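User: Please predict the structure of the protein below. I'd like the answer in structure-token form so I can feed it into my own downstream comparison script.

Assistant: Understood. Taking the following sequence of 344 residues as input:
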Amino acid sequence: MDYNEFFEASPYKYAFINFCCFIPVCLLSVYLFIYILLPVYLQKKKYVSFSLVFFSWFSFAIFINYFFAGLFLNNIHYKNYIAPNFINKINFSYANTTWAITVGLVALGIKLTKNWYWEQKENLEIVAKKARSDLNIQKAFIQPDFLLRSLDSIAAKIDTGSDEPGIMVLKLSDLLSYSLYQNEVDLVPLEKELSGLHDFISLEEKNLDYLFTINVQVNGDASNKFIPPVIILSMLQKCIVMLHNEDSNLHEIIVKINILSDQAFVKISFFNLKNDAHKTLDWEIIIQNTRNRLNVFFAPDEYRIQVTGEKETVIMLNIPLSDNLSGQINNSGKKAKPSFYEPV
């Protein structure tokens, strides 16, 4: 009632008695809300049953607290005397039951928030696992059209007695090694990606039905730079397969790669396409496939990919580079592992 009571024992004694008398209903309320009302009624959307049980518990809690209120009032002696009569016991019972229901609702809110958090986390993990599984499949995937063209070309050159088949087999072996290395790896040296790109282009140039020329221009230092594997190679490979299938009259592809300290800017330009090829060909599916793979490693605002073109089609990719394998962490929360593939 006044400041001096902070230095007296009785207020703390009465508070402890109050706690002991009314905490049982609070505890029961918490467990009722968390373990009965939530799983049995709320999560199953039985709202009418939930309301009936809720108000039944409220009434029963008032009944229980009525006796605890009598016990409390009989054991305290405030300066302003409170008689343990029916009205006072009902008032104390109602007030403390209201607090018990409030505590139960707060506990229910915490439980719902916790369940929502874990569900969201589990959903993200499922999405990440699915994306990683898709990525692993794509890592180990070489376009069958490209393989058939390369094998046909090697067989034809063997029949002619050329010296080229040995070199082509080695390049194809290196390219398959790069695509079929350990699937759990997150980053590879940028030099490996560029080497695989050159092997792919070299093989395509020797294919019998080859219709295009591909020029690669790399500016900047690729050493000590790391990139998610098969990103550029897979994108170019899908483009060429699509153009082969469409029998496009393509004469030249120019691949420009500018390497900075923490970024790589890739520009793939397709010249002399047939009329409206930039509209009729499904470039967006290539962009989306590449975007899905990049989403495994980066947030959407950390990279950029788009396709433009009127007279020629241009795919532009801006991708982050890492110079520290041990510190690189992808969206799945796992540290990236260094990788150096073994020959097939």
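That's the full token string. The chain is about 55% helix and 10% strand.
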